[in-house]
Specification:
The structure is a homodimer. Helices cover about 35% and strands about 15% of the residues of chain A. Chain A has 12 helices and 12 strands. The mean pLDDT of chain A is about 95. Chains A, B: Homodimer.
Chain lengths: ~350, ~350
């Protein structure tokens, strides 16, 4: 909208400069194949439905009351599943809120934080929002994180693993090098996509007092509609996140979200089975796209990052859209010849491949 | 917990200084009468249950997908009920999150914002969190807002109406004086409790380009467990809130919360009937407490603020607790001889009055 200078006087000066994050679009079109926001193609655990039904008992009388501000039951369920203590768990309204609190809690330092030049595009938005000084470190030519490049003065480090939108994972060995090389700064590993084949740094939390691992229920647990993210770290770091959260919003997680997420964490068999299904679908999709000429980066996520040597990526995205298939295209330096494609079901992936083969390529 | 100086080096320096908000306790004790957090004693509209059931269809398959980041359906439902345009509505994860965004969007000015000395105790927490310079303006001897006292240089004004914990309402005439006297600053009227008998400033939104009204579904709509708050203002102010929200968290309101809140706003008859029930219970409670010697401030909220000339308020709170009844006591200057008591059902209020009469006074 158009806002006059006269009207702009009401805004805080620093807010006039913000460049907000733009999420992947959520269009409401019939028969659309939506491979643009890395949602899971399978529904959540059936136990989620039962848990929400329980909240609705007695005419949803429970909704009268505030939820537990500490979401203790949820922290305990996460702790059990992750083999940590509940005092090592922080929860928030989606991992986006958890990441926002992380920036405020740890990254307001004199030195700039370090982050890859190609990564989750919300990171620079948080930096601007909180006034965090930030320096990007280029990925290498293969789009991999070079941990040696992070051996420089910094106010903290944040790396997505697997990285987005590249899909490439970093090994725990490399993460340990980062942690050991920066003992006085917090190193954040953002593991939104870790459950699709990468190694989780949660295994390192008890060993490193400077490690924060962030995860979400939106991808591997099929709960994007619910908004539950979490961080795992030693208690002295969790305490900083709690101080920030309790200075911002006492009750960020509602009664439905707590109940549903607890049920999801308690159904480990369903979780493991469906993560493996997505991995299997991914490997088939990579093979199929390769066979029609795409070059696909090695993915440990529920999406792939692919380029076609003979076709412009932006044009491919437009042509796919005309056929009712949406993928994500970033018109940015270094990656403007790539498409980020969410892994769908076997049938969905087949539709994508057939459409490419028969109507576009 | 104890955090060593060594561990504290990881925290952002400004976060080490935060003094977070402390919400009213949520104990899990059998047969407890909880009159401490101003929750509604009646369940939400039955239509809420049906709306949530609809989200659970197909094994809750809808939860796979992110919610609408703009929550357009919810904005439209609020707009219809409030007789404004959807472009004049902002929604957030409880009115606490909406208030936090308001502080960031409008109050980072050179001059201090003004707020009553006795008011919602989250306001100074937001100020510290965002670095907002704040000046408190004393309520008069009757605990009323004196609008003439706000005629001084400021960076914005925030007033709760009815005020909390005093329960006293300000008339729209007085609010218009505030708006007219501060044409270059945003005036925020926080109406968490307005539906229990006060006049809403939403009626003034089209007339004043500097007015922001904040409301919640937690009290009058019995949806504290859900976390949905909203602000109403002209579109040039809503745009500032959207810029802040989209720099912090794209999807703050989950699918259950959107569906349930929409259903609540669409059931105006249930809403009106149950607000009146609470008002009727309040008037009976005030009469009963007055008859056992309390002095009760004139309340337009779903709570009352009461003092007993012969009994120490802190001691009364302790004695009530020993009888399984929790009320809120603030050990703060000017109000440390008052109790804030949530209005319950007829039966709950009777238990409170009987306990006071027969076992404490």
């Amino acid at each position: 909208m158009n806002i006059s200078n006269q009207q702009m006087r009401f805004w805080s000066p620093e807010v006039r400069e913000l460049e907000p994050y733009v999420p992947g679009e959520q269009p409401k079109i019939q028969n659309l194949l939506k491979l643009n926001t890395n949602e899971n193609p399978y529904p959540p655990s059936p136990k989620v439905v039962a848990a929400v039904q329980a909240v609705l008992a007695d005419g949803a009388d429970a909704l009268r009351l505030y939820p537990d501000p500490d979401a203790s039951a949820l922290k305990q369920a996460i702790a059990t599943q992750q083999h940590v203590d509940a005092s090592q768990v922080f929860v928030g309204n989606g991992s986006d809120e958890v990441l926002a609190h992380i920036f405020k809690a740890f990254f307001l330092q004199d030195q700039p934080i370090l982050s890859p030049d190609i990564s989750y595009s919300f990171y620079p938005v948080y930096s601007q929002f909180f006034g965090v000084n930030t320096k990007t470190v280029p990925l290498n030519e293969q789009f991999e994180v070079e941990v040696a490049d992070y051996q420089q003065t910094n106010g903290g480090i944040i790396i997505a693993n697997p990285n987005a939108p590249t899909s490439i994972a970093l090994s725990l060995d490399k993460i340990e090098q980062l942690l050991q090389g920066n003992p006085d700064r917090v190193v954040v590993i953002d593991e939104a996509y870790v459950d699709f084949g990468a190694e989780s740094a949660v295994a390192l939390v008890n060993k490193y007092e400077n490690l924060v691992v962030c995860q979400t229920t939106s991808k591997s647990r099929s709960l994007a509609g619910l908004r539950v993210g979490f961080a795992i770290a030693q208690p002295h770091l969790i305490a900083a996140l709690e101080a920030v959260k309790n200075s911002f919003n006492s009750y960020p997680i509602d009664r439905f979200a707590i109940a549903a997420a607890v049920a999801s964490f308690e159904d480990q068999a369903y979780f493991a089975e469906h993560c493996q299904k997505v991995i299997d679908c991914r490997e088939q999709l990579v093979a199929d796209l390769t066979s029609v000429g795409f070059k696909v980066l090695p993915s440990k996520a529920n999406f792939i990052f692919a380029t076609h040597p003979e076709r412009d990526a932006g044009e491919l995205a437009t042509e796919l859209r005309a056929q009712g298939i949406i993928v994500r295209y970033f018109n940015k330096p270094r990656i403007n010849q790539y498409l980020r494609i969410t892994v769908g079901t076997t049938e969905q992936n087949q539709r994508l491949v057939d459409t490419l083969k028969n109507q576009i390529l």
